[in-house]
Amino acid sequence: MSDISVHSNAAEYAELPVRHNEDQLNADLASQVPLEVSQSSLDSAHTKTHLLLQCYMSQLTLPSSDYLTDTKSVLDQALRILQVRMDVSADQGWLVTSLNVIQLLQMVVQGHWWNQSSLLTLPHVQSYHLACFRRPGKSSSLPRGAPDSRAVVDNLPELIALCDGQMKTLNNMLASDMTPQQVDQVYQVLTKMPQIEVDVELRGWLEGEPESSSRQFNIGHRGGLRPESHWLQAHADQEYVLHVNLRRINKSRPKDSKVHSLRFSKPKDEGWVLVVGNVDSQEVVALKRVGYVRGQMRVQLSLYTPENTGRVVYTLYLMSDAYLGLDQQFDLCLDIIPPSVEAQVNSEVQDDGRFR
């Protein structure tokens, strides 16, 4: 069962109207959407909800104004339902489900599928524009649209980095296919999209240290074996606190906290979800929702280390609750050493969040 199907079965959608002969209209929509629905329940409010969500994210034309009204009703309730589902899945420790729910939240806000190019969430950008997004100076001798993996810019973070403070770069890509006003609108949205820099510290008691230690993770590693210095020691079965520092590094700061969305039915504030997970066991270790990052924000997440000694890699996910393609993830490498009675006695959290 897909995550959209699970969402559509929420009790809040049981009262969505299915009018006379709409089962036939639903059957026609079912033949157009990418995910299969049960042909035996086309008169069900939950099946109609499922179809409306798929039509919304596929940008399909709806058969009547009633369906537009019903779609707005479905979307109006979607965020609240997904927030509850996120909390429940995290409480149960379901890592894959939690990440899927957050991804569905992004799809609902942007009105696009996760496997579509995130560039399509920009104003005026259609599928035929994607070939225009190329790195400067790459493959200039190739015919337009010819495949070249070195030249293509296929995601928002890369385009943001190329065009940050460089309107000319974007104009060179799009000037032949868009008006100057349209290119400017794309640029304004790009410059406001959040660019978040992340630093992570582990704080807590370590035997042999004079006081509660604070050690910074190396989260910039990309591939290959990690040096010994990247592994931070921590006692088994011990509470520690991750201090995650989030810093907005945009050259221009937006005037408000509203998310850019071309399709969602009402304004939404930008927010983030921090998830710490164990990929091997597919368990959520910690999850915390945070709001708009205007300048700098420090977030604390408490976690307990495993009971067994040995090395473990946790993954920190920084996930947008509104934008597709802007998520980040980092490995947190822990060397779990035997538990310490001294550590357990001395690890008391003070009101200011520090250990003593």
Automatic annotation (TrEMBL):
- State if Endoplasmic reticulum is listed as a keyword: yes
Ordered alphabetically, the record's keywords are: Chaperone, Endoplasmic reticulum, Membrane, Transmembrane, Transmembrane helix
Q: Where in the cell is it found?
A: Endoplasmic reticulum; Membrane
What SUPFAM superfamilies would the database entry show?
E set domains, Sec63 N-terminal domain-like
Q: Where is the SEC63 domain?
A: 1-334
UniProt membrane topology term = Multi-pass membrane protein
The main location is endoplasmic reticulum
Name of the protein = Activating signal cointegrator 1 complex subunit 3
In its UniProt entry, the species of origin is given as: Aplysia californica (California sea hare)
Give the organism's phylogenetic lineage: Eukaryota, Metazoa, Spiralia, Lophotrochozoa, Mollusca
Recorded name of the encoding gene: LOC101846008
